[in-house]
């Protein structure tokens, strides 16, 4: 019988191995980047981020708004395709006072 702590440790170990297995398919791409970005559910997972740092020797960045709502994908799209950024949809008063 596994206690609550043992179950959590087993789940954590599985999660780190699962992510490492997925990333193994992209090993060539990882060599080309300056760092890694972890978002979504794994963003605040210290053990995962530490394992990725030790495995790949790259800094691991966690965006301030981690979540499962595709913000990281949007950040990447904005960075890679600046010509396709949508216009700001602000319809209220000016954000900056006009002279």
Compile the SSE list and pairings.
Elements (H helix, E strand, L loop, with lengths): L3 H21 L2 H6 L3 E2 L8 H11 L3 E2 L9 H10 L19
Parallel strand pairs: 1-2
> How far apart, in Å, are the first and last alpha carbons?
71 Å
Silhouette: extended
| Count of separate DSSP helical elements | 4
- Extract low-pLDDT stretches: none
SSE string: HHEHEH
**Mean model confidence by pLDDT:** 78
Helix content: 40-55%
Main β-sheet: number of strands, strand sense, barrel status?
A: 2 strands, parallel
Overall domain count: 1
Q: Could you tell me the strand content as a percent range?
A: under 5%
Oligomeric grouping of the chains = single chain
Please give the radius of gyration in angstroms: 19 Å
In total, the number of strands is 2
Query: What would you call the structural class?
Result: mainly alpha
Features:
about 100 residues, mainly alpha, two-stranded parallel sheet, 4 helices, about 50% helix
Structure, described:
This protein has 99 residues and is mainly alpha-helical. The protein has one domain. 48% of the residues lie in helices and 4% in strands. The chain contains four helices and two strands; from the N terminus they run ααβαβα. A two-stranded parallel sheet has the order 1-2. Helix 1 (4-24) packs parallel to helix 3 (46-56). It is extended, with a radius of gyration of 19 Å. The termini are far apart.
In short:
The chain is mainly alpha-helical and 99 residues long.
């Amino acid at each position: 019988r596994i206690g609550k702590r043992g179950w959590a440790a087993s789940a954590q170990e599985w999660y780190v191995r699962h992510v490492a297995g997925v990333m193994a398919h992209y090993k060539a791409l990882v060599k080309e980047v300056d760092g890694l970005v972890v978002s979504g559910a794994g963003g605040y997972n210290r053990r995962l981020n530490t394992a990725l740092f030790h495995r790949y020797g790259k800094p691991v960045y966690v965006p301030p708004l981690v979540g499962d709502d595709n913000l990281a994908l949007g950040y990447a799209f904005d960075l890679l395709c600046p010509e396709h950024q949508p216009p700001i949809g602000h319809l209220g008063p000016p954000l900056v006072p006009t002279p």
